[in-house]
Amino acid sequence: MKEQPSAPTGLTAEEQKDAQLKALIRRHLTLTLRRLRAEQNVSQQEAADFLKISRSAYVYYETGRIIPDIAKLCQLSSLFQVSVLEFFPSVPEN
After folding, report:
1. CA angle 30-32-38, nearest 5°?
2. Dihedrals φ, ψ of 24, to 5°?
3. How confident is the model over 25-34, as pLDDT tens digits?
4. How far apart are CA 47 and CA 92, in angstroms?
């Protein structure tokens, strides 16, 4: 089992929790994009063309280097025929 990355030091407990949540969302998004694209036999170039972006920009989405904005997430949900909520993990409320 992989250990979750720790939050940067020097942050308040609230900032650490926020950083961990952002890392969880980023990880879930990248894994979901890769899974959906593979399941539907869509190439990275086809996904990029659908979004009207370069293939390298799309690759950044799949690697977590860039997080797509809400408009791109809506387009991705249309491409893969899933709810936008599919791109976000279920997070217990606290």
Report:
1. 105
2. -65, -45
3. 999 999 999 9
4. 31
